[in-house]
Request: fold
Amino acid sequence: MQTAVATAKVWIGGEWRDSDAEGVFEPENPATGEKLGREFPVSRWSDCDRALTAAVAAAHELETVAPEKIAGFLEAYAKELELDADAIVQAAHEETALPVSPRLKDVELPRTTDQLRQAAAAARQGTWRRPIVDQGKNLRSCYAPIGPVVVFGPNNFPFAFNGVSGGDFAAAIVAGNPVIAKAHPLHAYTSQRMAEAAARALQSTGLPPATVQMIYKLNHENGARLVSDPRIGASGFTGSKGAGLKLKHAADTAGKPIYLEMSSLNPVLFLPEGLKENAQKWARELADSCTLGSGQFCTRPNLAVAVAGEATEAFLQELTAAIASREPHALLSSSTRDQLHESISALQHAGATLLTGGKNVPGPGYRYASTLLRVSGKAFLSAPEELQREAFGNEVMVIVAADEAELLRVLEHLEGQLTGTVYSAAAGADDDLYARVEPILRRKVGRLLNDKMPTGVAVSPAMNHGGPYPATGHPHFTAVGIPTSIARFTALHSYDNVRPERLPAFLR
Amino acid sequence: MQTAVATAKVWIGGEWRDSDAEGVFEPENPATGEKLGREFPVSRWSDCDRALTAAVAAAHELETVAPEKIAGFLEAYAKELELDADAIVQAAHEETALPVSPRLKDVELPRTTDQLRQAAAAARQGTWRRPIVDQGKNLRSCYAPIGPVVVFGPNNFPFAFNGVSGGDFAAAIVAGNPVIAKAHPLHAYTSQRMAEAAARALQSTGLPPATVQMIYKLNHENGARLVSDPRIGASGFTGSKGAGLKLKHAADTAGKPIYLEMSSLNPVLFLPEGLKENAQKWARELADSCTLGSGQFCTRPNLAVAVAGEATEAFLQELTAAIASREPHALLSSSTRDQLHESISALQHAGATLLTGGKNVPGPGYRYASTLLRVSGKAFLSAPEELQREAFGNEVMVIVAADEAELLRVLEHLEGQLTGTVYSAAAGADDDLYARVEPILRRKVGRLLNDKMPTGVAVSPAMNHGGPYPATGHPHFTAVGIPTSIARFTALHSYDNVRPERLPAFLR
Reply:
């Protein structure tokens, strides 16, 4: 496709306008490696500056907009996405190689619109405000919008975590904050179509047009400048630890809150008594979970832990066969594949042994053989940092601890994680060990699971899609689960002796 | 007092033990400048290391301690403080020069024990857990202890914000976190007596002895190492911006939450119509508030703003006379006085004019003449950063804006503050201007006040003792106000498909 194409426009201040671009990029189809015939701009700082100024004005306007109107926008947006679903799904499929079904069309898009509608309900209910009235002291408090929010979406969820439609977006909007979305360049056209749907919904519901803005790509320096600009309230970021830590440093230095979801190995423990009865079954469950969607989920198991023994050997044998038999799908991009290979090589270099996989799969697109690594507890304990390198993709590493004591030491050395899972004997034969494992694991993870794989993050008020550093930047907050996720984009406001007519209505 | 005295011991791991000290310090009475005949250690890292290890063990033990027992400790501690009140108040009076009455004995100590009892009630009620049960998805969440908490107390509240007895301490303990208190060296003996009371309460209620630990002083490097140690959950700090930012940088880099209360000018706006009627009255209120306790409160007004005119001149005349007539009390230390003078000099250098004060007061102790500065809105706008330097003590600077438009521009340039106050005409003559002032000020402050001075922080669930950076490190959190303040020391935990008998009782 060598025909000249127009560079896509950015959505700033209620207009689709030409970016003040420092360059362009052309997305490709990772299933074929072919260019998709579209061109998108890399924004200069002037685009950000314009968006920030418009966002500040929108934030002021939103202060006096009724919650019902914000809810109406979120619902209208969900509807617009459904009306354009075929085109959006097709765009995402072409840009990410993720399957149309069962994924983009019947799982991720419905999840995204459901999330927007749950957000609309939360806007109406207003429980996120958590008003407190102390009449005796004539003192009142509530949570209030934090200010314009910048959202950096990840590569792996073109809808549900997209900066212009996902969980951070919805949470920020509920609390009355305009959003500046930094779309992920790997699904730029998908993001463009979604932003077009948002623009239609903004217009039909009469919200300030700059309530939602979107750019496609920035250099690192401008990204850092954006999250630390005095005009923003907070940022949300989902992506790699490397990129996340750079943004965190910039935001921290400026005193600006940033909520990051950066990396997680999601360790799964298989306790010995249970493993004796379930080696085959659990091996297949693990193989399914770590290869689903080519392992490109924040909560796919990247690490498993078992205690040495016959059952563990049988488990590993079955696991090797199961993983080797999985037909690998295309990864999100050539760099996703390069990074996966680099991580797997680094893990081997640090002491892990390759049981299967570990190489590119020939043919069209960017596919990588599903990979299984094995390492002893002793080796892990001698290089815990190097052996906790995330391999984002269809890979899992099993740590075989010499005994229960070593298993506990391995757990003590785990970094913070989004999830931690324990499989154990149904009848209670592992309960004594569970009682020793749980207190260690519980402190390290945001979500503790029993007897099921961690992949998949339900949109539920009881969800925690968060966890201790470096899984996220702060263990008090969750990125998924309305209304709890809204708290990230709020500031506490107290009113002391303020005259009644000057109070927000819900505090009078 | 040149007799040899024993160096005080540190309270670590349930023992009063000799510090592994790198030096000692001898507190003095700031009202007289005389040494108090006591010697305290500057701890080396080994003291911190020992305390951290003990805290980790205590944190594990606390996980299975009933809330009732934690509540019992907090109440027993309050009682022990009351039993030793005379000695504690006397110690604090000698170390800080703050008056016994009406302050240490009848205001701050009762406030502190009240806070501990409110914390006990919150521990019993357990609302800080905020449990959510989603039975359909078999998913549950609650807030849980974040891990050992380090608390750095400030110089200005020997009881109510002390690391071993104050708001951060109480909030951390309610959530089941052991506390390592870094006492402020300016009230080391007071802190020692309080820690002794805590030790008795720990013993009588059977809590792990390392639930509370205390050291007196650390060098900057060890302070930074402490807040970033992998064994801690979070830190709380109240003090100067300079010290706070160093700790923030260390904690941020390590991915450890730190809650800071660093500085605030607490601007007070006097709107023009009201000022015409109340110039004298408001001037006296401001003079009282900014000299109370020698201005050594986090929320004393350090800045006032008015619009040029006859009433403002009358106000300034009255204010000059009132402030000049206030007998200055001793400041907390010689360095407090040096820093106050340095700040006042810097403000003059940056464009402010001295109306009264600006010098040391001769005689015993560390007293400084109550000081009033004046600066034009234009001058302020030309150096807003330099002219927002905090002068911690009995000083206030009045910005005189040329007109309403300049007043609004001044507000736009304010940094984040703990409080912001608006005085206005009772009958509504200033309401139009209030409506333009409020949206700007509201975003900049944690607590918005009408018609009363901000000094004084009620212990109420509706209090916000927090605000945007650099007043604090994160605008979502408050340091005062139970139960909201507890949230700082919690991590979100989700339980997914966890077997019923393995769930915390309150989630079953």
